[in-house]
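Bit of a strange request maybe. I'm writing a small parser for structure token strings and I need a real example to test against, not something I typed by hand. Could someone generate the tokens for this chain?
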Amino acid sequence: MQDHRYSFAVEATPQEVWNVFWGKRRRVVEHGDVRIEILHFGDEVGNGLIRHCRFRVPRFLLSGGVGRSWEWLTEVKPCESWRYDAVGKPLWSRASGWTRLEDLGDGRTRVSFRETYDVFNPVLRRLLERRVHRFISKDNDILMKRAVEEGVRRQRAAGAATSAGRTVSSPAAAASVEE
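Reply from user aminoacidic:
Good idea to test on real output. This should exercise your parser:
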């Protein structure tokens, strides 16, 4: 099993960081080679959100360089934390991730992320798990920090994270605003 941890501090409140992740949501989000399709927005705070993701994997896995995962979010605590669990392929695996927002005071927040990754097949686990996880995750830390900082910057430039004159606090609320 692979276990990856990362944290960084950002000049933003937990509410601002929360809105980057959970504010106005679209059904499909694309960032370069990554495509995330929200299949179900979950309850009013996002518990039960289900998404399908497409991302790059090493070509030696014979999937055309494309991996897929099906993910669901649970343990959502607004402005504090959430968890995801996933099943992925072509190297059939399971992953779990936890994101926590810690208020550091003075308008600063520490974003902490942990992910575990486990390949089902014991032979492939021994031969490929570390290498594939490293490939999939190699830029995640930089990209996550950059995305949070850019998201906060955009919110502030827009004056506030609002939609139709109200703060959007969950994927379910965002879906109702968009429709």
